[in-house]
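Example record

The entry below shows one chain as it appears in the dataset: sequence first, then structure tokens.
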Amino acid sequence: MRNKIQLHRVEDEISELARDTRMVMLNENHWYPNHRLFAIELLKKLKKNDYTHLALEALFPNQDQKINERGYPTFSSGYYIREPNFGQLIRKAKELGFVIIGYENQNREINRELGQAQNLQKILEEHPNQKIFVYAGLDHILEKETKSGKRMAAYFKELTGINPLTINQADMVGTTHNELNLIPQNVVKSFKKLDKAVDFFVINNLKSSF
């Protein structure tokens, strides 16, 4: 029972924080499918807070419109989307009424991170009254410049002036009593590998039930 109580506490805390922004960014390790289970759980809470769009990095070009028309993904929707948990994420989003939208940069003449940020900026400009849940890979959600340059979230903040809620579940792994643990970044920033410009880290021990 305690595990489920903690799960709901984490979801509720993120849901409350999400009220103060138009964009929530959650990352994943592409090779750890259970990260997608947390994204599925968050969908339900964010929908209640008027989030309307699920923006996915992993979509192949022009697949968002096809998914929105049919209501589910196919083998052609995206490489990572072929994994069952990712497919379930999209199905649940459509069931809840989310609009699926791709934001990967398809212009090879533009820096990938900048291109992604520009695409997200365009989505917000086209939907000025909407809120967006962004599901990204790894370090794309870092809000400050790193030694290797700026990532998508850093560019996004510069372009829009919007401070997204950023949640990193890719860098902390451990066996804990709870299914989910939410940890503010300032609690762990003294650890070099965790000194990353996000708002929160999550330890995700969720298991699939479908």
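Notes for this example: The domain at 2-172 is CATH 3.40.50.11550 (Rossmann fold). The first strand starts at residue 23 and ends at 28.
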